[in-house]
Structures are given as structure tokens and as C-alpha cells.
Design a protein that fits this description.
alpha/beta; 9 helices; 32% helix; 15% strand
């Protein structure tokens, strides 16, 4: 079989050793920050800022969003558009998910609260649910702790729903955010008896959506297809937000999620890594 030479990035070097070869690939150079204006957190309404705490800031809140969060800010917080955000690990995708949650909370504020920019947490809590789908139980537990801490000030209840953690019907009814695994949510959405609270779901966040290519991909596809069918049948908007590592076929995944390529698709290559990878 003929040897095929791999096309490596410029600056790569090869070192031949006995029985193997070492290849050094330099990190992609970061794009300079001055090419993009960062969005300050104070651009958010005052009531929403407690969702971004920071112990290192005198105000107690994050000062500004990073480059990726700033680029996605308008689509995530100011519109109900479906989103697909492809970005390297550690790039801050959790804050993008939080912005999507705040967008829904903004729509669910009572009439009196909407007239004011002050910190008033009068939400119609029984009129919506947010589903956060994470691939592993450890990540589910981490997201529950993170979101409960950041959304607790709004009176939002965050619950874990996995194979190891069972919720009573009352607990499910009281929960505003349910963090679960693909397999568990797939089982729930197959049951006709659970329609009472499934119909209240207004936002579905799918973390690590690139696992569509994994052995668990069919489960994610089933969840997405079932959600889209529900939207078509009920004509009720359910926002889908996909968070992913960098994907080569991100446009195909965006089409699956019904994402508008001009408004909801964001792709960030490895030059956006917080820590360059060599």
C-alpha cells in the first residue's frame, strides 16, 4: 500500500525516530482582540446581570463577554432564533446557553416587570420549562450546580433528571430548568402521559451536539426530530440551541437544527482557543 503524505500546516516539523515518527504542529495564532469590540455585561438589563457573577470584579459581576460570547450576544439574547455555536473547548459556551435562558426569561417577565429595567424577578414560572441536554451524568451534575447558583436569584429551580436521579411528578412540575441526558429525555418524550409538561418546554439546549457522529447520535437525532414535529403540529415555538466543538460539516448540523445560516450559525476555529493547542 502506497504511503500517503499528510498535508500539515505551515511551520510543522517531522522528526524520524527508530520505529516511529514525531510530528510537531504549531498552535494557530490567535486573532488579535482589537479586531472585535467586546460587549460589556452592563449592556444587559440590570435585572439580568446577576446571572454573570464574578468575585474578581468590584461590581460583583463579569465586566465583559469574551470574543465568542460578544459575537453571539445579539442572536442569543435579543432574538428567539435557533442557534448552533461551534467553538473550541473552554471558549465559554456555557455563558451563551445562559444568554439564551435569559432571553426566554425576558419574554416570560410579567407586564409590570417589563416596564422597568430594575432587578425585579416577576416571572410567570409555571408557563415554561427549559431542557438542558448534556451527554454525561458528571456534566449534568456540573451544569445543575452552575445554573442553580446563577439562576437562583430569579427564583428559578434547576433539577437533575438522569437514570440515577428520579423526580416525582410534583418535582418535575416545580422545576423550571431540567438538566438531563439524551437517553433519559428520549424516554420521557416517547411517553404520551408526559405531554402536560413537555408542552411547556420553550427552550432546548443540546450540549456537545457534535456527538451526532457518535454511537449515541441516533438518540439525539430522535430528540431533535420529535421536537421539530411537535413545533409543526402545535405551531408553538420551541427554541433549539446547539453547542458544539468545531465541526467540519457544521452547515449540515445547522440544517438539522433548523438554524438560519445568516442569523443563528456561528463557527469559530481553533484560533479562538483560550489556551493555544500544539
Amino acid at each position: 500500500m502506497a504511503n500517503k503524505k499528510c498535508i500539515l500546516p505551515k511551520g510543522s516539523t517531522r522528526v524520524t525516530k527508530p520505529g516511529y515518527e514525531e510530528v510537531y504542529v504549531p498552535a494557530i495564532k490567535k486573532k488579535t482582540a482589537n479586531q472585535q469590540k467586546l460587549v460589556p455585561v452592563k449592556q444587559l438589563p440590570e435585572w439580568a446581570r446577576p446571572a454573570f457573577p464574578s468575585s474578581s470584579s468590584p461590581s460583583g459581576f463579569l465586566v465583559e463577554f469574551n470574543r465568542i460570547q460578544s459575537a453571539v450576544y445579539k442572536a442569543a439574547f435579543e432574538t428567539p432564533e435557533n442557534l448552533l455555536v461551534c467553538a473550541p473547548t473552554g471558549a465559554g459556551k456555557t455563558n451563551i446557553a445562559m444568554l439564551a435562558c435569559l432571553q426566554l426569561l425576558s419574554a416570560m417577565r410579567s407586564t409590570d416587570s417589563r416596564r422597568s429595567n430594575e432587578r425585579k424577578f416577576n416571572f410567570n414560572l409555571r408557563s415554561f420549562k427549559i431542557i438542558y441536554i448534556a451527554p454525561m451524568k458528571a456534566l449534568v451534575t456540573e451544569v445543575v450546580g452552575n445554573f442553580q447558583q446563577r439562576l437562583g436569584a430569579f427564583g428559578i429551580k434547576v433539577k437533575e433528571l438522569t437514570g440515577d436521579v428520579h423526580l416525582t411528578k410534583q418535582q418535575i412540575e416545580e422545576a423550571n430548568v431540567i438538566v438531563t441526558t439524551p437517553e433519559k429525555w428520549d424516554i420521557i418524550t416517547r411517553k404520551s402521559g408526559e405531554r402536560a409538561y413537555i408542552d411547556l418546554v420553550k427552550l432546548i439546549i443540546i450540549d456537545e451536539v457534535h456527538l451526532l457522529h457518535d454511537s449515541r447520535g441516533p438518540v439525539l437525532e430522535s430528540i431533535i426530530a420529535r421536537t421539530i414535529r411537535q413545533i409543526e403540529e402545535t405551531q408553538e415555538l420551541v427554541r433549539i440551541v446547539g453547542l458544539s466543538a468545531t465541526l467540519p460539516n457544521y452547515k449540515d448540523v445547522a440544517a438539522l437544527l433548523r438554524v438560519n445560516h445568516d442569523q443563528g450559525l456561528f463557527y469559530f476555529d481553533n484560533s479562538y482557543r483560550p489556551v493555544p493547542l500544539e
